[in-house]
């Protein structure tokens, strides 16, 4: 088994989930209605939990313990796509990001149920219910607000236009694409992107929203290689504040 | 001047304005309510867990899942608009409410299925009893009194048409698959009492 390829895959997935989980948790207490606040916060918690499961797999492959990996790296050592580190902005942007990212995440884990790396296939099967809820949540809101009022449609459309190049950054090719596919660890970013586009378009077709032309959009790459926006480091500083004061703190 | 605060309650305070601004009071911009029923475990009856606010039935189902089943155990939920639930009178002590429900009278059109819920103890939750076919809520309760009473003392009955519910679909049963592992959502899991004790002893 190609451990280097596998680790690269696990790191980018785990980092995506940790960073977006932390971002989405910033909505706790500020959600548009109480029930939605609870739902969005719960899903943020799920994402952090899923990243923890992936960091545990990495630990079993010889990497540092999950807390060390999560709290002691700086921005250039993170492999998340830039999409997940962008600030929350208004709920329209957060919702569109939730829709675009979680659709990709659900398809990725669905593909990973076939992975030859058994612990990852097991994890993918175990969390399928969480991912089903996340995509049900995203799809239901997008269907609702994507065809509700002029304001809701135009706000979601503006958010979609802004988010799309960053969403394409999720699928930045890995230097190990061929090995991952060959060893049947993961069917690859290109296959994932195709299935993602199809699902996203199916939902958007039920709304008044339009996906920007993918052939005319330059993806925002770089995150997978540690090139990040100015927004990631402040997030990491905040996330690791308690750990840096007292690494043994428990709460 | 518009106040901008990190606390949303402060931002929601009415703006200060002059005396010339007398206007009609606006209605509250709140969503309607939906009743949520939860099945804690396969084979156990559904019971009323609470209500959520939502703009429609599908969103009510979506929001009910996290609002009312993010802790403990759940295998399935169902949800209906509060306005679909018909409520019998309420009794106490030795008075079974079914004895007060008059016979249904002549049929009013086609029969449809209703879900029936029973209250066994004042202040507790309504528990799902079963389904009957009837042409009106009153007839549904009357038939429930014949077929679902099972010799129990019942103080209140709810009846709601089955086709108004959003049920959990078979393929959605996995929504709660990892719930039993989420002990961190349980206040007890933090063992706050133990931690406080250790802290005080160290002092």
Kindly summarize this structure in a few lines.
The complex is a heterodimer of chains A (251) and B (203). With 251 residues, chain A is mostly helical. Chain A has 12 helices and no strands.
Characterization of the model:
The complex is a heterodimer of chains A (251) and B (203). Chain A has helices spanning 3-25, 34-60, 66-71, 82-85, 91-112, 118-126, 128-145, 150-168, 177-182, 189-204, 232-239, 241-245. By secondary structure, chain A is mostly helical. In chain A, helix 5 packs antiparallel against helix 7 (128-145). The longest helix of chain A is centred in the N-terminal third of the chain and has 27 residues, at 34-60. Chain A is globular and about 55 Å long. The mean pLDDT of chain A is 97. With 203 residues, chain B is an alpha+beta fold. Chain B has a domain at 29-169: Phenylacetic acid degradation B (Ubiquitin-like (UB roll), Roll). Chain B has four helices and eight strands; from the N terminus they run αββαββββαββα. Chain B has helices at 8-11, 57-69, 137-147, 192-202, and strands at residues 32-39, 47-54, 76-81, 86-87, 112-119, 127-134, 156-161, 166-167. In chain B, the strands form two sheets. Chain B has a four-stranded antiparallel beta sheet, covered by helices on one side. The longest helix of chain B has 13 residues, at 57-69. Chain B starts with 7 loop residues before the first helix and ends with a helix.
